[in-house]
Amino acid sequence: MLPSTTPIRLRAAAFGDGDTPLSGERIRWILDGELVGTGLEKEVRNLRPGEHVATVIATENKLDSSRQVEFTVFNNAPEEQKRDGKNSPKK
User: Fold this and answer.
1) pLDDT of 3-18, one tens digit each?
2) The whole model's pTM is what?
3) Which of 23, 20, 1, 3 is nearest to 12 (CA)?
4) Which residue of 48, 55, 78, 91 lies most exposed, with the fewest beta carbons within 10 A?
């Protein structure tokens, strides 16, 4: 869980045939079903509170490979964090 004011940095490493690194337009970032950018890194901000899904798609020739991560953004810190004065959720 992340506060809604936290910028989220999405990062990926992708390799093609012969372990050649892929970059640029060959790496696409999808957030909640919408294309948000290309490249090895993308920073997203001002996400609405709730659950989100980030997907990275690496393409070489006609082959695609993808991975995704789910995360939650909240409006305010949970009460136990406010009492403890910490910025990250307890595990």
Assistant:
1) 777 888 999 999 988 8
2) 0.75
3) 23
4) 91
